[in-house]
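Reminder to self: keep the SMILES exactly as supplied, no canonicalising. Ligand is coenzyme A.
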Amino acid sequence: MSNFNLRSIESSDMLTILEWSNDSETRKQSFNSSPISLEEHKAWFNRKLASVSEKQCYFYILENDSTPIGSIRLDPINEEKSSYIISYMISPKQRGLGYGTKIIKSLIDLLDEGFIIAKPVSLLAYVKPGNKASIRCFQKLGFEQKDKNISDSELVFHLSIC
Ligand SMILES: CC(C)(COP(=O)(O)OP(=O)(O)OC[C@H]1O[C@@H](n2cnc3c(N)ncnc32)[C@H](O)[C@@H]1OP(=O)(O)O)[C@@H](O)C(=O)NCCC(=O)NCCS
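Structure tokens returned for the bound complex:
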């Protein structure tokens, strides 16, 4: 039987995150599509780990038993830390199996409990218009598309957790 678990990021996840990030589809769907070097990634990843330990950001891995399936991150966009940008990806080998939806839902369930961040929490996602799978994930989970997108190349989805 499958045993899914959302756990906090660890230093040992560094290379897995680099591999998933440098996958061609991930680069294509990112707003900065350049490949990421190991050095650049290490510096970024270590900054994120420090932010996680200071509760300045939240970064999780979805596992099935002990196999990592995907990652999801929340970065605050305001001083009050009530609005966050979601970034997420699924391991290239495990896409199309419902895990994109599952990882966002697992995070929403965690936020709904109100233990990690005080509610209400506002979630924002910036998605490229061609990223059909991601658009579908957010729509299925009740995110609303904002009328005013930042540009034609960026859709904005929003969900409030009260
Ligand atoms: C976006 C991403 C996370 C989706 O994860 P996933 O596990 O493949 O998605 P799911 O299997 O949960 O599929 C979600 C929905 O999209 C649909 N879908 C999947 N691929 C699709 C495609 N190419 N075109 C249209 N719909 C698609 C699925 O059918 C499903 O809808 P359904 O439940 O109505 O059938 C994954 O593709 C990924 O990691 N992409 C690269 C990184 C990325 O784009 N991150 C998000 C940035 S906003």
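Points to follow up:
The chain has a mean pLDDT of 95.
The two ends are 33 Å apart (CA to CA).
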